[in-house]
Amino acid sequence: MGKKQCDDSVCIELLSERHSAAYMDAFSESVRAPLHVQSIESEELYLKDRLAQKAPFFFVIIVKKTNQLIGAIEIRDACYRSQLYCWINEKWWGSGVFQTAMQLAAHSYFEQTNEAVISARVDYSNARSVHALEKVGFTVEGIAPGPREKQYALHLER
Questions:
Q1: Are 151 and 116 in contact (CB under 8 A)?
Q2: Among 7, 52, 94, 123, which residue's CB has the most CB atoms within a 10 Å radius?
Q3: Rg (CA), the chain
């Protein structure tokens, strides 16, 4: 598979240095708050680390028509308690773009690994994200303790 995958409206592309500025521009306060990101600087450091590590499944979400970066999806190694790190700018919430991008990312992950499941954890208070993941096909396994509050434990099977 190449570095970029698209459907009719959205593309996912492997994170590269050239995405950094657009990533940070789209990473608004409305996005940071539910992710509990301490500061914009901490996200910049995270991004630099993921670039240095050449994270194999860290995709940016790009609107095909405008070539605008509007979010990100990272599927981390299966040893993480939650493999999924994702966000989409609030201007695109409810548009269906995230579901399409997540389907493309999951397909890429499953095709390139021997893994059969992607895990996710979502804070109990973040019903919008749970709903978006369920639309992609994630199922809620239960409630688990989280770092700040209880979390939904979800998984998506191949």
A1: no
A2: 123
A3: 15
> In the chain, pLDDT over 70 holds for what percent of residues?
99
Q: Are 119 and 154 in contact (CB under 8 A)?
A: yes
Residues found in the chain: 158
Residue type, 62: I
β-bridge partners, 119? 155
pTM of the shown model: 0.93
- pLDDT at residue 70, as a whole number: 98
Q: Which residues make beta-bridge pairs with 12?
A: 5, 61
Return all residues near 137 (Cβ < 8 A) that are at least 6 apart: 156, 157
Residue 1: pLDDT band by 50, 70, 90 thresholds? Answer: very low
In the block, tokens 């590269």 appear at: 16
Query: Of 41, 78, 74, nearest to 59 (Cα)?
Result: 74
Question: What is residue 128's three-state secondary structure?
Answer: helix
